Each structure stands twice: as C-alpha cells, then as structure tokens.
C-alpha cells in the first residue's frame, strides 16, 4: 500500500501536470514538506517547477503585515490593561504576582474564542433569567440553549457566594479587556495567530491576497479544524481555489462510534469539504497483520526493551519511526538506542540538560539566600554545584570544599565558607543586592557558560542552541519587568521557571534516512514501514486532562469549543492512521501501577483487540532473578606481606590493641583486617542522621566537664550535689555541640534540625545519668575520668610456639567509689553507651565466644583488667550506663539465670575473661587461621565493608551438607 503522501503526489501529477509553480501546498506542520518533496521527485522522475510549501500559520500570516508578538509580551500587555480596568471600576490594581495565575488562562481562552469565531459579548454575557437566553440565543439549537441554561442555573440568582460574585465580575470585565487587548496589539502594529484567523474569517483582512497568487491551494492532512479554518476552507472550495487531501480509512470514518473519525466526518459531512483522493479505502478493517504489544516493568524499561527489538528488527531498506506518546521518555530513549542514524523532531528539552541543572540550582539558592535572607544552604546544594561538569571547578578546590564539609559534618554550610574561586561561576552563591538583579545575573551566568563552552575543542551545538534560546526568553522577561514596580525575587524566579520550561533544541539529522523520533502530533501525514510507539498507556494515550480555562464545559459544548472528548478523538486519529500503512507495529506500555501510571494499555489498543482482525502478540517483561556468579569467599591468609606487616606493627612496633579492636575481631575477623591491619577507613560522608559516635562524644565530654571538679578529691561528695548540675546541662551540651560543629554557635535557635535533636537526646541522657547516681548512692568519689592515654600494658601470648608480647590499652570513661544506701563502699568502672547495648546476657559462654552476644561486657571487662593491672586497684565492678534502659535494667551486668557480675562470680569471670582474651589474641596472630567473615555476625546497613561479606560461608552448615 502506498503511503498517504505518495498518493497525494500521484494525484498532484495527474491533476496539474509538470508545472506546479502556481500551486500552494499547506500542511499543519513543517515535517511533511520534506517527505512530499521526495514523493513528488519519485513520482515525476525528472525536474519540475516546484509548488510553494507553507505551514497553515505561515500561509495565514501572509495576510497581515503586523509583527507577531511573543506570548510574554502579550502577558505584559494584558496585565497593564487589566489594572487600568480595575482602577476605572474603583478597585485597587493587582500585583503581577496576583494577576499571573489567571493571565495564562485568559489569553488561552481569548485565543480559543478567536479560532472558533465565538461572539465575545454572548459568551461572557451576564445572564439572569432563562427568558433572556431564549431571546438572545434564538439562533442556537435547543441543545445548545440547554447547555447555557445549565451553566447559569449553577449560580444561585437569589444570592451569590463570594467566589461566584468575583467570577461574575471577572466575566463582565473580560469582553472589555478583550477589546482593549486587541486595540493594544493594533496600536503597536502587533498581532498574533488567533487574531489573524478571526480577521481573515470575518473579512477584516483581505483573504484574496492569499488565494489570488495561486491557481490552487492544496490543504494536505488536516483533521481537526477550528471554525475559522472551516469557514475559510468552505469559502475557498466554493470559489474553486482549494483542494483537500484527507488521510482517512473507512474503518473509523464510516462508523460513528469510532472517535478517530470524528473530525474528518465533520469536515466532509457538516462542512461539505471534498476529499481530493475520493472515497477512503478500508485498509484497517481488512488487515490481519501482527501487532506486537510489550508490557514493561516500569516506565524507563520501555526504552530498554526497545533496544533489543531495534537490533533484531531494523533493516536498511525500511523506514522506521519511534513515536513518543509519552514525550518525557526522550532522554532515556536516547541513552538506550543502538548505534544508528537518528533524527529527532521533538527536540532535546532544556529542563533535562545540565544547563537547566545549573540555572535551577542558582534559582533555588537565591530563593533561600536572597528572598528568605538565609546565610546557609544545605550540603546537597553545594555538592550538586561541585559535581556539575559545567562549573569546571578545580579538583583541588573541590576536594578542599568536600573535606571542610565532611570534617565538620556540616548539614548546612555558611555561604561565606564556600570556596569556588577556580570555577567559571565564582559568584554563584553571592546573594542578590536588589530584586532588579535576578534576570541580569542569570543572563550573566549563561554568558559565562557560553564563553566556557566555546573554549572547548568541540562545542555541542545543542548546548549552544539551548543557551541562546534561553537568553532570548530571559531578555523578553527583562523588558517586561522593567515597566513594572518592584517584583519579589520569589515571583520572578517562578515566572522564569515557567517561561523557560518549553525551550528545546532540535537534534537534527536526515529526515529521510535513519530512525525518526517524534511525538504523535508531529507524525501527521507521515508513514513508516516500522512503527514503535512508547508510552501507549491509558491516561497518556489519550491524555486524561485538559488545559485550564474560565469557560466551563457546558458553555464550551454550547459554542462548539474543544472539550476533552475532542482531545480523545484527535489522539485516536493520530494513533489509528499508522495502522493503515505500517507493516511492522510495536506498541510499548508501562504495566507497573504507580503515581504516574495506570499500569494498563491504552483503550485504543483494547478496542482494536476486540473489534479488528489484527493478531496481537503480547509479551510481558519479566524481572529476571539475577543469580550473581558464585564468587569465592574473600579470605585473607596470614602470610607473606600481611604477616610481615602484622608482626612489624604489633609485635615489633608495639601498636596497641583496643577493646573495640578485640570485639571487632570477635564479630568479624575480616573486618578486623580491613580496619586495624590494612587500615582501610570508611570514606568521609555527610549523614542525613547524626552519627551515634558523635552523640557519644558529646555525652562523654559533658560528663567529664561536670565530674572533673570531683576527680582526685580524698573525701566523698554527696550525690545530691550532682542534682545541682542538672540545670547546667542544656548550656554545657550546647557548648559541646558548638565545639564539634561550629564554634560560632551561641544559642539553641542557631542549631540546625539534626543538631537540635542531638541536643535534646544528649541533655536527657546526661540528666538521667546524674539523677540515677543521686537516687542510688549517697556519695561518690571520682578516681579516674575520660583517660585514653595512660592505660596500656604488655600482654604475653604464644605465637608460633614462642612467647611474644603485644600491647593492649583501655579508654577509661570513669572509675569511681560510691557509697550505697546501706553504707557499703563499691569500686566501679563505668562505661557510657548511647546505642542499643544491654547489661543482659543469656549465658557467659555466649559472651566469651566468637560473635559475642554482649560486646559491651567484653569491652568493660577489658577496661577493668587493664586498669587493675596498671594501678593495682582491685575488685572493680563493671557497670554500663545505657540511658534508655538503665532505670528498668540497672547498670550491673546480669545473666538470664540470675548470674550477676558481682562478688565471687565476678572474680571468677574476670579470670575466665583473661583466658578468653589470651586465646583470642593468640588466634589473631595464628598464621594457620586466616581472616574471614563470620556469616552469623550481625551486619548493619551502615557497615562500609558489607560488599566483602557477601560470599561468606558458614562452615558448620557446609559440613552438614
């Protein structure tokens, strides 16, 4: 079957011969012009006088010498005129911020009323009774009059609500505003397409100037006509000046239930336009070809599925097009295409480019530092700037900024502390000194980016186009803003975002070769051998929303204005027409239900399945269950360089082994190797939640500040004095958080949200510690406090049959003597914990074992042993202060069967602990036992070494198998 434009070319040759110089060919858009030229060349086979080609808007604009005015200029005209009307009515003029939300709707409605030649006075008339409707609208059908009555009856005539009253006042004002707007355009020798359409149809512009130069005007591929077009087309057809080529099929044209044929039926039956191609063929109804339907598991996955199909399906002699029902898929599509020639009609959107990323970040930043007068911005915004390739900040300066943020764990950064002097945008984070600087500064940023891109060896044309088009829009906005009193930064930025959103840059290729990518609307008149439609979901094809309007649906129906059903009919036609000519049809939709997808294929597809003879082959994408290749378990033998380093570090170099290192080994020998042998540290990062170890640091340091005056005193201090310190805790915690984060913090309200949470938790924990001591003891004497330097000892172990010595050391949080309520004096070693530790254990055997069930007990016994050996002070009782549990569980370690770490049982277990510690240390240095992960160990999500544990094998289970 020949394509539509091939049939048009054949008919043109038959009708007009070889001289087409006085023929005009008019399309709805530009793309079909290239294709018709090719078909004419193929049909004639030799050189001919070419017809003149136009889009419909280019053709109609020949009738007016006025300049086309931009949408932004129209907006500013409308704003000025609307305020003049308000003043005349005795009202206060509106600000631009107040008027902007309704301005777009008013302009859109004015345009629609012009295109469809609606009487402005009638549609905006203030009606009060049905008899007036009967008199004023006798020319309308009863159904149309009923729609108008239905609209006005929705208002209670006896008393309007405030909203209704404002609505009626606006409606009464709109006809006056419409005329003033048209006069304003004329006074500046400006016009727009809706004005030209109405003036041509109503005879204000001489349409003979359009038709006289040509023998015939051929309108090709038109579908949905507005009333102005229909009026002109009928007139020109009656005068023998116009021919119409409708692309249609009887499958949907002759069946009134088929929405795809709505507009062509209207063109032929109601408007009396004749199809120059004669009767429409019945192609779709007779086809039994295969249609491939693909259900993808996600929106983006449609493009991934398409890749494989293109690789297997594409042939050099066949024409192919990817039609984007969902145009937001363009960028992921470009990232998924195989190596092939591509021509993109839709254009690359600015909002998906790195340029917009920079602009958006600048506007977001200025909303904070210039509008809200903040002096800090989030670390994510700084990271975004540092990592954007267009900023071209030096590697050194980038690293310095990141190091500064990470070391201080700054969730928010003072803008004065951001160093970006090497960047092409060194003043990016500088606050604006005036609201008038918004657009000039943004234009300056674009100029700097353009200059920077120009220095590259090969500037991307797409980036240059986007920058230039964006500057044009910003300059138009700037001209409009200059005439208006001061506008808020927030509003200007909001308007800028809206104005630049539609900008795109065409990615040009050969429109006649390779893979063509376009939207459905751009595919009008075009046919391809292979068709791939992406986004064929219900809710997208067709869309379920209409443009905002002040013209309610009842009135739109009464005046024949477009309604949602019209949009459905147009979408149906754009979809169905491809079934007439394409041989290979592939439809893709997202089968996942989420906030943006119904998970269902378009109803057009379901209708075809039910009504047509097409054979649908459905393919549901399955999420593959990926079994990673069975990699070998990571095991580090203690040999060669590893053993030599361990010996040099710990035996000869006397590197100290801490309690934390010991419990790390018990839980995962492999992690011990990474952290303490290989010294592979966790990379610095900013956490969205404060780190528990930093909370612990704050608590330890404040407790030291409170208890330090008691250290070394010979006499006991009554614990009631500790309660006197409770009122000081808030201030002490604030000072400590400031010391950890930012010394300039002086008040609680200067803390960010996470720091406030930390302040609250630390304050409550410390108060609980002090209150616990006051409630449970009469007096206290501090022996040692927060000492991480003085407590290390030599510990003999056997390595390879020979006695060696390693050094172990303990960090002593607190050693004290307390007097109980019974007058008993106890010596204690106290460890503060802020995490999920507990004083409970099920059995001591499970404590003194690999993957210990209570590492806090192991660590506290470790500290007690080192302290006792170093000082000679004996009988220390281990205590654990866990704020969230200490009131219920106490602070003394105890087993589930009544064992309590006190008195004889404690003495016995201290001896057992020393044996256990010796066995563990000897195992660490046993060259026959490699470092490997214990698969039973608890692994936290934040563990940076998780990747290395994934192949760990449980030897006991493996042996059983």
TrEMBL record:
<protein>
    <submittedName>
        <fullName>PD-(D/E)XK nuclease family protein</fullName>
    </submittedName>
</protein>
<feature type="domain" description="PD-(D/E)XK endonuclease-like">
    <location>
        <begin position="657"/>
        <end position="935"/>
    </location>
</feature>
<dbReference type="InterPro" id="IPR038726">
    <property type="entry name" value="PDDEXK_AddAB-type"/>
</dbReference>
<dbReference type="InterPro" id="IPR011604">
    <property type="entry name" value="PDDEXK-like_dom_sf"/>
</dbReference>
<dbReference type="InterPro" id="IPR027417">
    <property type="entry name" value="P-loop_NTPase"/>
</dbReference>
<dbReference type="Pfam" id="PF12705">
    <property type="entry name" value="PDDEXK_1"/>
</dbReference>
